[in-house]
Amino acid sequence: MTTPVPAPQPLWYxxxxxxxxGALLAAAAVDFFAIIxxxxxxxxxxxxELVQVLVGIAGTVALVAATLHxxxxxxxxxxxxxxxxxxxxxxxxxxxxxxxxxxxxAAGSAWLAHDLWSAQEASELWQLPYRPLRIAGVAGxxxxxxxxxxxxxxxxxx
Amino acid sequence: xxxxxxxxxxxxxxxxVLLLLGMPIGAALGLVGISGLTLVLGFEPxxxxxxxxxxxxxTRYELGTLPLFLLMAQLCFxxxxxxxxFDAASSWMGHRRGGLAYASIAGCSxxxxxxxxxxxxxxxxxxxxxxxxxxxxxxxxLATGTVAAGGTLGQMIPPSGALIVFGIIAQxxxxxxxxxxxxxxxxxxxxxxxxxxxxxxxxxxxxPSTPRADWATRWATxxxxxxxxLLMLVVxxxxxxxxxxxxxxxxxxxxxxxxxxxxxxxxxxxxLYVALEETLKTSGLIYTVVIGTxxxxxxxxxxxxxxxxxxxxxxxxxxxxxxxxxxxxxxLLLGSLLDGLALMLLATPILLPVVTSLGLxxxxxxxxxxxxxxxxxxxxxxxxxxxxxxxxAPDVPLWRIFRGVLPFLAADxxxxxxxxxxxxxxxxxxxxxx
Lengths: 158, 434
Description:
The complex is a heterodimer of chains A (158) and B (434). By secondary structure, chain A is mostly helical.
């Protein structure tokens, strides 16, 4: 018996995993050194700001990864008990609603980013600008909307 | 539309319908929340509130704890931690009648301390423990039921994903929640031990004795897990004794798990990539649900549904214990329809104000609702752990697994009752350490 070979992942997705995973590892490293610094009398000032930015990046990538792998939690009490045709229809309807939800999130985030554009938002100690993070967030949410629409178009995975 | 409790109730009903139709939980919560806020407050405020919630949630320092704890678990998983934990427990306890079942519960407890998920605990320990128990002539029902129930310890013993999510939604200290969960987690484990002891005394054929491992084997199995034991001690001890915050503990956990995996020579670039990808996939699932819940909570709060429910319940004058028991009944009934996460996230915005109006601690409520949610993991028709275990042992029919889990379910009800009657089970340790 041979082990099935997993389908190759697209390059953009692998880059996303490296970016999001790298951000997570960096967040862990910053917090870890902040603890060591605190206990050894050399505090790492602004570590929380750095971690916030890093987990923001990881969180956006995480939403993309969960959507691409159709990994969102759902209640299957009904969908697993109906015939294949009805289940397929339900899947498409739910994927469309999912797309509507992420589109609303993207629209809300874009609205807020536009409102705060001239405010030059930045973190307090490190002066990390929030604009790129907000743009990345909106782009990520729009990407997830497109992925959800594609899943609605493709239907259920067999 | 007016912001009235009736509007909120309509929202809850719409949410239930969407959830039953199989819509992703986060999307259902969020869509109902956004639609409700649009109807009640208008389009622009609803959209702006949603936008600000997304950014705040994704960059929230405390929520960063969750992916980091998930990463710690993934790294331990990559280094075969579940097998080594079970091997150690079975070499020390396996020779007793029912010893492998005790070892399974002990293995689940150990794995729970490096992983915050019921399903992951049941699946990983199940893969190791169920074939071993069956090989030694244990009853299918006992073998599968033990691991299905033991898996629920994953949500209670810190670090617990459910408690982190509850802490974020209820705005409670995650560190205090973790500390409060220690005694309930240990008493739950103890009750499971008692169940196994009673079962094997009643029907010895359920679990034949196995040969006693010699001392060299016992020490050899312990020699494979010093890094894991140290990791558990440092992570849980660090939080409980205030050496670092839960968020920082997650980072310490990742650093420790990385070092442990390197020491075991089990971590290459491929394994690291897989661990990171799995972490991101699960984190994305939870982030979506958290964002959806926060939007839904704002809607529920604006409609005044939670306040109205609180006023109605306190107006009944039924007393704390009866009210909490009614809540438990409500949660268990709803748990028959919804999965654990959906149940907790739907119920928290509505029940938490009721609980606080009764003068009960939100920390206690966090432990109580996670305990009720855990029960949902092993009682049909949802009972996700039962399905996970069937995936691990496909030749055991679902009804046999359920039969095996029934005695543990009874113990769970006793445990929930104890938690209601003696809130100190959850509150004593945080108070003592404070």
